[in-house]
Amino acid sequence: MNLLNIAFLQIAPGNTAAENLEKGLSACRRARRLGADIALFPEMWSNGYQIQDRPAKEWAAQALPIEGAFTSAFAALAGELQMAIAVTLLEKYPGGPKNSLLLFDRRGNRTLHYSKVHTCDFGTERNLTPGEGFSAAVLDTAAGPVCVGAMICYDREFPESARILMLQGAELILVPNACPMEINRLSQLRCRSFENMLAIATCNYPQTVAGCNGRSTLFDGIAFQEEGDGRDMCSFEAPSQEGVYLTSLDLDALRAYRRAETWGNAYRRPRKYQELIREEIHDPFIREDYRG
Fold this sequence. Notes:
Layout: E1 3-10, H1 17-34, E2 38-40, H2 56-60, H3 69-81, E3 84-91, E4 98-104, E5 110-115, E6 137-141, E7 144-150, H4 159-167, E8 172-176, H5 183-196, E9 199-203, E10 217-219, E11 234-237, E12 243-250, H6 251-260
Parallel strand pairs: 1-2, 2-3, 7-8, 8-9
Antiparallel strand pairs: 1-12, 3-4, 4-5, 6-7, 9-10, 10-11
């Protein structure tokens, strides 16, 4: 059994980037003491996703460079602790900041830089610059190499996000989050995990943060046991309270399942899916003002 230990940093932010830096570093150290191989933050940790009901110019001024002191501190700590860290930030970017994740491996090397593609353009996130696409990367961990991708919150609601990452070889998708995790959003994560035969780790803010309720989860991607009975793929769900929560993903079991089962890429017929890349909308009841 080859276990990857994942820590969910389900913690409440402070009022400044400096406070969040110190609290974040402390949470990472706690995660390592618990035995974590990777620590995952909720969405936009650098400012605690404090962009609601505020002028865009005000919160945009809080954007940080991806190679500044904030991110460098987490890179250095990853190397010190020999633990991968997936930290999130409001990234400084010409034309408007990005909602981003940086993944550092246990040597402190940056393995992945992802910016939220599906920004919530029906609200204040319309002032963000969307990311350009999805990518997976091989992460060096104590459990061996693991192919990892990322989605951020609203990305979860589009099947294409996880499907592209699956096609790139992702075994685990990291999902920083900042919204209520209720039955429908949890069902989306379950479905993305099931249909792509991959694990999905989602870290949310605790219930003390407005609009959030904790319930960070790991869906391990294994829908059926050898005897064919269905099982609950939600192998971990945190309570609503603030905390650092640890769980494990059995990589050997997931990989054996992916080799044997029929979902994911096994029987796709991509030449039949051309309608998916059409920009024209034929349904008059679908809103047309958010076309990509």
